[in-house]
Design brief:
The chain is mostly beta strands. The chain folds into 2 domains: 52 residues, Roll (SH3 type barrels); 196 residues, Alpha-Beta Complex (Fumarylacetoacetate hydrolase, domain 2), CATH 3.90.850.10. Strands 1, 2, 3, 4, 5, 6, 7, 8, 11, 12, 14 and 17 form a 12-stranded mixed sheet that branches. A 5-stranded mixed sheet has the order 9-20-19-15-16, with no helix packed on it. A hairpin with a 2-residue loop joins strand 15 and strand 16. The protein binds magnesium ion (MG). The site of magnesium ion has 8 residues, from loops.
Length: 264
């Protein structure tokens, strides 16, 4: 099931996405919140602008308490930036205030001159958990969505901690929705800028598996429903400029598109 979070005439709701054609998608509004038992209301609204004038806008599919991102988890990407492939997973945070949704603008931060895209598979956590054993990892996963780990590469290179380089406002586009029924082990992940392909990889190329990553982070901390794990980016990262349209597509999920603007 694809679960989206959206606003309609000023109200926020979750809905199950039905349909295949992009301009014919319908949202079946969910009663309650999707991390617990929920029901579909049967009240359906079209995602595209409707003749009746209701306006639906997709929002970030979850509001995470924290985004835990793993670095250098694809060997080709680690090497393209001149880094060693790490023996163990290593994590950093992106704050909740970095999250934006599909169609929202990425604001080029004024303290950087080298903003990069990083297409990533995002894992959405479904229940509170700590010290998750490998065989229980699947039980704590709610689903999967697309992410773009937007990075101020110049700032990342000159500052030891990456809080500013990877945590500035709008640096974590997520969406367009969460796919709850998906085998994430071998999916195509690609990124285009203005329609030209920049990144192409498969999730099977991850050095540390999703199980490894969740075991690793929950050794240290509690994850909450809605928390997001970013699983690393394949090779092909590169610069973005103001006016670019950047799109992350993952097989079985969909496409997350955002535009780069100057911070106003
Ligand atoms: Mg990354």
């Amino acid at each position: 099931m694809r679960i989206a979070r959206f606003s309609i005439d000023g109200n926020v709701a979750f809905g199950a996405v039905e349909g295949d054609q992009p301009d014919e998608l319908v949202l079946d509004i969910i009663k309650g919140i999707p991390f617990t038992d929920f029901e579909l209301s049967g009240t359906k609204v079209p995602l595209a602008p409707s003749e009746s004038g209701t306006r639906v806008r997709l929002l970030p599919p979850v509001l995470p308490n924290k985004v835990v991102a793993f670095g250098r988890n694809y060997a080709d990407h680690a090497r393209e930036l001149g880094n060693e492939v790490p023996d163990a997973p290593f994590a950093f945070f992106k704050p909740s205030t970095s999250v934006i949704g599909p169609g929202d603008d990425i604001q080029y931060p004024p303290f950087s001159e080298d903003l990069h895209h990083e297409a990533e598979l995002a894992v959405v956590i479904g229940r509170m958990c700590r010290e998750v054993p490998r065989e229980r990892v699947k039980d704590v996963i709610f689903g999967y969505t697309c992410a773009n780990d937007i990075t101020a590469r110049d700032v990342q290179k000159r500052e030891k901690q990456w809080a500013r380089a990877k945590g500035f406002d709008t640096s974590c586009p997520l969406g367009p929705w969460v796919e709850t029924d998906l085998d994430p082990s071998d999916l195509t992940i690609q990124l285009t800028v203005n329609g030209s392909q920049r990144q192409l990889g498969r999730t099977s190329e991850m050095i540390h598996s999703i199980e490894d990553l969740i075991v690793n982070i929950t050794e240290a901390m509690t994850l909450l429903p809605g928390d997001v794990i970013l699983t690393g980016t394949p090779a092909g990262v590169g610069p973005l400029t103001v006016g670019d349209e950047v799109a992350v597509s993952i097989e079985g999920i969909g496409t997350l598109t955002n535009k780069v603007v100057k911070r106003g």
